[in-house]
Every structure is written in structure tokens, then in C-alpha cells.
Design a protein that fits this description.
Layout lengths: L11 H6 L4 H7 L3 E8 L2 E4 L4 E3 L5 E7 L4 E3 L6 E10 L4 E7 L2 E7 L12 E6 L5 E3 L1
Length: 134
């Protein structure tokens, strides 16, 4: 519900993974919303971040959930700076800065060094989980 109106109807996983609007996306969980353009199945933010996103060309807002972001040297990784790191018990919550965009990330870091503010890291985004909001 948003201002007395039904914002989206669906299963919990459908609403979480494919929200109908930015309001729904933020209501059901943390996320990063980035505005940009899609052309030839490539999303480019207003500040230059590019990610593969199939779909029709035009203006778009891309939703990225924190659990779909990880640190590592995989193919397609992007260099980022840790803007903040907060240990919350079970997980560490990071805010990563890249191409002028801030991206939320959560991880367990059980057997690896926990990044701290100012560290430079390689970030991998699971592009199969990105969702376009129109």
C-alpha cells in the first residue's frame, strides 16, 4: 500500500525481486537505485557506470540489491572505493563508491579481511539479478 493505494500484488519473492516501482523496491528491502539509459542491452548511468541489462532502449532506473554485490576478482569486476563499512553482527554493510555512484553491499566476510573505509576493492555485480524499473 502507498497512500491508500495497492502498489503491487504478488508473492513475496516476486515483489522483492521484481518490484513495480521505486517505492515498492525500497519498502520491501534495501536497494540501490541508479538512473541512466539502456542502449543495445547496456545500461549506462548518468555518471558512466555500465552494466549489461537486456531490454528496450531508453531511460531506465536500475535496482541493485546489496546481496547481489560481492568483492572479488571475477570477470567483469569494477574497481570501487569503500565509502563506509559498518559491522552489524552477522554481516558487514558496505557503501561502495564507483563512477560517482554509491552502491550498498552486505557480506559475511567469514574467512577474509573485512574492507574498511578508504580501501580500494574489486566489485562484482550479479547482473542476472538486476531489475529495471520503468
Amino acid at each position: 500500500m502507498n497512500a491508500g493505494r495497492l502498489a503491487q500484488l504478488g508473492t513475496p519473492s516476486e515483489i522483492f525481486e521484481k518490484p513495480a516501482s521505486a517505492f515498492v523496491a525500497n519498502f520491501v528491502g534495501e536497494c540501490t537505485l541508479i538512473e541512466g539509459q539502456i542502449e543495445n542491452d547496456i545500461f549506462t548511468s548518468k555518471r558512466g557506470l555500465s552494466l549489461p541489462v537486456p531490454g528496450k532502449s531508453g531511460g531506465a532506473t536500475l535496482m541493485i540489491r546489496p546481496e547481489h554485490v560481492s568483492i572479488g576478482d571475477g570477470g567483469g569486476s569494477i574497481r570501487a572505493r569503500v565509502a563506509s563499512a559498518v559491522f552489524t553482527g552477522g554481516v558487514t554493510r558496505l557503501v561502495l563508491s564507483m563512477f560517482g555512484e554509491e552502491l550498498l553491499m552486505q557480506s559475511f566476510f567469514r574467512h577474509s579481511k573485512v574492507p574498511v573505509q578508504g580501501d580500494e576493492v574489486n566489485v562484482w555485480i550479479d547482473t542476472s539479478c538486476l531489475h529495471r524499473l520503468d
